[in-house]
Amino acid sequence: MHDLIDRYPTRVLDTPALIDRTDPVVWTSDADPEILGFESRGYLHRTGAISPDTAARCLAEITRIEHDPDLRGDERIIREESGEAVRSVFDIMNLSAIVAEAVEESGAAHLARRILGSEVYIHQSRLNHKPGFVGGAFYWHSDFETWHAEDGMPAPRAVSASIALTANETYNGPLMIVPGSQRVFIQCRGATPPDHHLESLVTTTPRIGAPSESAVTEVVGTNGIDVVTGPAGSMTMFDSNVLHASGGNITPFDRANIFVVFNSVENRLQDPFAAAAPRPLHLAARELPEPRRQPFPQ
């Protein structure tokens, strides 16, 4: 049983709707222009979050993990539908000390605390890879819809940091964000099948947990689309409820990013709101971290 009323019902069987968000986007009174911009657009972008050397060392981890015989068949490594190329590596901060150090260098956790107004913990970490010519698309979605439905995250009090390990150009499948869409929750249609993650993490055309074409058209028509590009080492932090996607990569130029989700400790996971059982722990951590000795920065 849930401790909270479900204010963001989804995976409905009738016609899905757009629901006004009832929670803040920024949970503090931080008047920094960067934070105010995040509140307005649903994301912010920084260059030079990590050094070029750090980015290069993280990028080399893809090859190491891809060819590590001990990780062959590991459920944390997701490969493209079309072949053996690595699409995502989950639990990357436990699999790679180099990546964990890079996330620390980026200052992402500090920024997440400023936005969420509390201590945070890592809900999920992964490395997204779109190798040249074969990198698949990630269809339009709100992360919070999945985390709410399948992980039991009560409210959109979480943010994601995407740290570029290669240049993210307009032509190699960069992140596309619908600015302002964080203020509306887009319901999705259809009941969640058992072990849905086994399909949803691989496919480029999801059946469940994806907004309808009419909903995407409506929200994009109101807000437009921002294409987020930047050099290796840049970082984009975005709200858990913002609508986003990225196209496939048919260029010779790889695109790779570290992806880390910070959830407020005051937003801990419950039972899934629209699934029979929670997803595995490498997709949704359920243990809270040890308390910090210092209070979170205001």
Automatic annotation (TrEMBL):
InterPro entries, per database record: EctD, Phytyl_CoA_dOase-like
GO molecular function terms attached to this record: oxidoreductase activity
Transmembrane segments: none
Gene3D superfamilies the record matches: q2cbj1_9rhob like domain
Reaction catalyzed: L-ectoine + 2-oxoglutarate + O2 = 5-hydroxyectoine + succinate + CO2
Domain of life the protein comes from: Bacteria
EC top class, as a word: oxidoreductase
EC number(s) from the headed UniProt entry: 1.14.11.55
Cofactor: Fe(2+)
Keyword annotations of the record: Dioxygenase, Iron, Metal-binding, Oxidoreductase
Entry's family note: Belongs to the PhyH family. EctD subfamily.
Main function: Involved in the biosynthesis of 5-hydroxyectoine, called compatible solute, which helps organisms to survive extreme osmotic stress by acting as a highly soluble organic osmolyte. Catalyzes the 2-oxoglutarate-dependent selective hydroxylation of L-ectoine to yield (4S,5S)-5-hydroxyectoine.
Subunit composition and interactions: Homodimer.
Protein name as annotated: Ectoine hydroxylase
